[in-house]
Every structure is written in C-alpha cells, then in structure tokens.
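Notebook, bench 3.
Goal today: get a predicted structure for Polar amino acid transport system substrate-binding protein from Halopseudomonas aestusnigri so we can plan the truncation constructs. The sequence was checked against the plasmid map this morning, with no discrepancies at the termini. Length recorded as 263 residues. Pasting the sequence as submitted so the record is complete.
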Amino acid sequence: MNMHKTPGLWMRIAVASLLLLAPTTSAIANDQDLPVLTAGYIQFPPIAYTDEQGHARGAIIELTNELAAASGYRVDWKSYPINRIYRSLDTGDIDLWPGSPQVPALQDFTVESSSLGVRVKLCAFALQGTPRISHYQDLANHDLVLIRGYTYREQLNRVISENHYHPIVAPDHTAAMEILLRGRAQYLISYGHPMQEALADYPLQGARCDQLDEWPLVYVISKRNPQAEEIAEALDSAYLEWREANPEPRRLRGVRNRLATAH
C-alpha cells in the first residue's frame, strides 16, 4: 500500500489507536488520583515480603491492595522492622499495618479492623527426641533460639525474661535451624508460615511444631490519621464483599501448609 496516497486512512488508524489507548491511560491517571494509605510490613514470607525487584509481595499485600482499591485508596508499602512499625503508627508516619490484634504497646494510638482470613501460628520448633511443649511455661529454663526482627506474645516475653538461659537471637531461619541442629538450643521459636518457607530451602528432618498460640491478622490503623475509624469500616466492608466473591479461603502461594496451619 502506498501510504503517501492514503493520508486519510493512516490518520484514521492513528486516531483509532489513540482511542484504544485512552482507557488505559485514564485508568492509570485515576489510580494516581486516589488518596494514599502508607502501610508498613515486616518480612514474613509468604504473607508479606520484598521480592528481588524491591516490590512488596505476598498474600496479605495482594489482599490489602484489592481491599484498598475497592475502598477508594491506593497503598504505598514500606518494609520496616517491627519496632519501627510501632513507632510509625504512633507518629502517623504509616497509616496502617496488617498485623496482630490487641498489642498492648499499640492500643493507645490505634484502632483495629475486624479479623482477616489469614491466621498466624506461633510454634516452638524442635527435633525428634526433644520433650513436647504444650504451654508457654513449659519453655522455662530451656535453651531457646529466636529470630531477629520478630516479636512474640506477652506470655512468651515473660517466660524469656525469667529464663535462666539467655536466648540466642539468630539473623534468619536458616541460621536458627543450624543452631538447633548443633544442639546449641532445644527449641526454635517462630511462626508457621515463614518457617515452612525456610524448610523448603533447608530441610530439617524430623522437625515438628509444638503450637503455642494462634491468632488472626487485622489491620492496625493509626489514630494520627483523622479518618482512622472510617478507614477501618471501609476495609471491613470491602473484606466482607471480597469474602462473598471468594468463599474458599485463599491458599498462600507456594506454601506447603503442614507446619503453617496444622495443630
């Protein structure tokens, strides 16, 4: 075809192409116009983690993005250590954190959403031959290894503070499992989901989870945001609608849930 002899045709094609692109461009612009909620998360794979490109990923990240969009917001994610998340909720530097309910240190300056469909389980992981644990107090005067950057329930914190043996704090799960294998600790205190992820790369034969506690995640929202109550209500409403459309619980991607959810 001689394009010099058919300028009208090419003009129509160009206009049609722009019209096809227009909705996408408009959608991007509209998304950018949404009010922003700044949210914090800790590294807790596969529920929340940072991928190789530096982006927030994970089941709770994806769910929060969906619920926020349905509520008229977009989310700007920040990966922080847990203590900085607590401080940032207090100062209002972050608006929300998908985390544990009823944390005493947060109750004066936060409100909470209803529970979400993701539950976390706190375990004392041990090797075969180690006595079973059924209660926090059973850990008293045992050698423990903890994971740096994680916090634990108040009951466990009391046991740790009263323990005659100072717990070892490992930089990650792999280092903690090596400590367990070498006999330097009897129990590794961590959570089911990230431990299961770590076991995929570092199989620990005979490892078991003695469950200490379990609770659902909620959105913990800073009262420094003047719309804190409204945000909690909007996310609750969006979650109820999401549950109606997704009656089956969402399986966490890539996770074998034996340690994450089994009792």
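The chain has eight helices and twelve strands. Residues 1-29, 252-257 have pLDDT under 50 and may be disordered.
Flagging this for group meeting.
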